[in-house]
Amino acid sequence: MKLSTKDKIVEAMVELVHEKGYKGATTRELAQIAGVNEVTIFRIFGNKKGIVDAIIQKYALIDLIESIFQEKVVWDIEKDLKMLVREYQALLEQKRTVILLSLKETGQFADLDELLKRIPRKYTEIITDYFTKMIEKGKMNTVDSYVIATNFVFINFGYFLMKTKINSEAEELSIDDFIDKNINSFIKMLQ
């Protein structure tokens, strides 16, 4: 699939900022990577901040997380949590570059910082509601749904960071091993 000029610039910006940081990313180099004239960047986006705004719009995960939950939950704690781990990891991997970019550029862009905060907040909210309903249905132990959901999110995001940033050179813990070694223990604690 051929990218539009706008998408070429957005993708090039993500790559360039990931490599050099926002301040080190020049529009001249951005134009070269995107294969466009520098004037085109300003015509489409106005400035570098306009490109960051486009990145935020393109990479927002909030709606995806919610729709996956609504479509795929079967109210079986083992099946649901394993599915949610796989789906969340797939979404994080799909948005990997912009997540790492937002971590690298923390404090540089309020909107990017807010995006990074909204992803785990929304995931925590969804999981908290799920645990509350599972308790009401008598399908899991009575626990503080928010605390358990927060731990679940930390485990998931920690796994993403470990395989992406911390342990990228080392032998990776596969998603299957991660689920077997961590999520299965988590599920047993809840039943």
Automatic annotation (TrEMBL):
Pfam families given in the database record: TetR_N
Residues of the DNA-binding region: 26-45
Cross-referenced InterPro entries: Homeodomain-like_sf (IPR009057), HTH-type_TetR-like_transc_reg (IPR050109), HTH_TetR (IPR001647)
Domain HTH tetR-type as annotated: residue spans: 3-63
Domain of life, source organism: Bacteria
Keyword list, A-Z: DNA-binding
PANTHER family assigned: HTH-TYPE TRANSCRIPTIONAL REGULATOR PKSA, HTH-TYPE TRANSCRIPTIONAL REGULATOR RUTR
Protein's name according to its UniProt entry: TetR family transcriptional regulator
Lineage: Bacteria, Bacillati, Bacillota, Bacilli, Bacillales
